[in-house]
Amino acid sequence: MEEESKKLEIVFLDPKKIKIFRGTFETIHVMLEDGSLYRGVFAVAAFPVSNPNKYISLFCYDANDREYEIGMIEDIEQLPDEAKKLVMEALRRQYFSFEILAINSIKFAYGLLFFDVETDKGPREFSMKWETRFAFDFGKKGKILIDIFEDRYVIKDISKLNKIEQELFTRYIYW
Amino acid sequence: MTQMNQDIPENILRRLEEKGIKQSEIRLKTFADLDFLGNPAEIWVIATDNRFVVIPEKGFHDEIDLSLEKIKKFRIRASIGSAYLQAKIDEFYIDIVRFTNALRFRFSRFIVQLDLLRQGKPVSDEYVQESHPMTCPVCGLPLQTEKAACPRCARQGPILFRIIFLLEPYLHWVIIVLILMLISVGLSLVPPKLTQILVDEVLTSRRHVDWLIWIVTALISAELMRAFINMIVGTLTSSVGTLITYDLRKKLFRKLQELSIDYYDQQSVGTLMTRFSSDVEAFYGFVTQVGQGFLLNLFLIAGIGIMLFFINAKLAFYVLVPVPLVMMGTYFFWSRIYPMNFRLWDSQAKISRFLNIVFSGIRVVKAFAQEEKEIRRFDIMASDLRDSQRRVQTSVAKFNPMMAFLFSTGGLIVWYAGGKAVLQNQGFTLGQLMAFLSYTGMFYGPLSQMALMSNWVSSFITASHRIFEILDTEPQLKDVPGAIRMPNIKGHIKFEHVTFGYDRYQPVIKDVSFEIEPGQLVGIVGKSGSGKTTLVNLICRFYDVQEGAIYIDGKDIREISSYDLRKQIGLVLQEPFLFRASIAENILYGRPDATFRDVLNASKAANCHDFIMKLPMGYDLYLREHGAGISGGEKQRIGIARALLCDPPILILDEATSSVDTESEKKIQDALAILCKNRTTIAIAHRLSTLRGADKILVVDNGKIVESGTHQQLMEKKGLYYKLVIMQTKLTSIEAEVE
Q1: For a 10 Å CB count at each end of chain B, is N or C smaller?
Q2: How far apart are CA B461 and CA B338, in angstroms?
Q3: Does A123 contact B at CB distance below 8 Å?
């Protein structure tokens, strides 16, 4: 019974007692204090917007290719520098989006919105369905747009766009 | 932006040659567009018959050169916003390349071919290079849904032409309306001309005083005839308007019935309801406005314009001075109001959606004492609607006075120039000036209304877009031309290497194969989310498999007429949906031609006859929304009676007894035992004890069939099924102790 109820508890990993190191082919391995080794580990943030560096879960795959949680790191800052670097890298490998820095144009045609934007990864053009479920809040000030291929475009703070861009953006994405 | 050139760059080819790989040896190729840290890159992935090579063209990435033999498996791992091609080497997966979601489709096809290559089977690079189903294969335009008709290539023409096309069945009425309108416009031009004669010949010169009575009589007759004609025009346009909305509603409902389940997965009920109510109603508005407003005004503007130039060409030019400004103002107004109407519509749809959800789930709201929270949520939405409405209305309110001012300047110019001409005796009489001013007033009136029409035209076009969006949607699952008619299915079912995912990149069913003989009772068990319901969704062909095939009586399910297929599959769900109709009508739903005797027999067999007979209205009891008022077990038994009445050769029971108490379950089980006789039955059951008598039990785990056999065989095997049975037995004994 006790074992069963333990399964329902989150395992918090002690940053001082775990070893996080790089394996072959740029994979990340984790060794727990009991000596168990987990290879090909990836990281997932529990609060990727509100608290991106805290409550980071480490996942792995079992023999049946099912992902399972090894445990959770409460705060990345508590990790030794090298391990911290690897976990940060694992997070960068887990999340991807284009950050919109400027909007050149938005056009509505054929039932879609066509965006021409400047992003942190260079100029991009994309199209999205003009529906509320494809543009949702990013924190309290931003928006995430999902294009027709399910790529993500983030505006972290709409108020930081210039007035013309804001007017253009909110004319279409007003919710 | 996503379909980059798929020709391998020269320097990659050189690098391959350095590795001893000739271009002719390349079997498969593609590229990834990100490095591992998410920076833009171009990383080429190339496979020959025995080697697997990764070389970066742009961006940072290690070169990889592996023997294909060394790789046990390929797969795609989705991360948030991107994905990885992974290869299983030794006992764990390594990331090979990372790419944006735009390339996921291509990579999903790439790994299918890679696996064939590993097995030494023929591969197709064209299969990998096929265009993304969300883009038009001809022009590359992004599409609203996978493989939808491309609006650019379909050349459906401007929306107004499509709307006019809807008028086709009523063309004869439209022609009559047009003729009557021309007569009405002609009659409108008469009074000012008569006024001119009245002023010049009767009132000022007094040459023909006796004409007074005749001129007034002619004026009355003209107005009377015009009123009569306008009455007929109004009646006819209203009739045509109501007929068009009737046609449109029918078309829309038929289309929505044809669309596959996946369309409904993406739409909310509230949004669809708004399309039926306000959007279709906009068509009625369009026909009446066009008939009684737009066309009439257009004819008036043309007729009066001719009269103005006929009376005095110089003054007529002055009248036209404000027209360009009006046109510019209208264009500006149009471009502003158009997106505002979308917002307004969205706010209305949100409120409908919200009310639908809250009223359907009112018990949950009250049970959790969340009334205040829901009131606050409603307030936010109502405020949003208020603001959207206000935005549209204030824009209209600003526009109208501005237009009125522009028109008045034209009138004042005519007063000044015309008055001067009369005073200086330049061959322009007072009567002519009076007539001219009359015509000017009549000219600006329709012009002003025409300018304001941009308001209703924009909301109408917005509504039309949404209606045509549904009418143009192609069902994802359509019968193939010449679909096989199978009115007498025997019930043999075969799954052959079936892979399927609601998100095509995340399979829920993975390479599943099994066979069910006609008349067998087969149980499907597994944990929640293991893919049990998905299996039955595929048998019903609510979705199409992505890999492999499903055969019914030896025929691929995709080639069978969907009408025949669904007509012969009975489905009893965990919570049967009961319509707002009598119990008898609910039982008759799948076979409306059945007799009352059939209904009674089916109900008796389904163990619901006795409780129905105790109801004051018996079978005529009119059920409320979702069958409110009768218990879950009773609803379930009505659902079983409904399935029993259809007598389907294939019966699917999806957790049919999981939501009822033990006593009801016993009654339902007895009913099901009768229902399953002489037909192929697939039962998904949470309570494993209900499947002990099954001919075969399939144990599903993580989208795969991990065990199959009879209850006895599986218990002896001591695998997952055994564990589930033991777990449930313990749980039952705990429950018994508690009770």
Answers
A1: C
A2: 9
A3: no
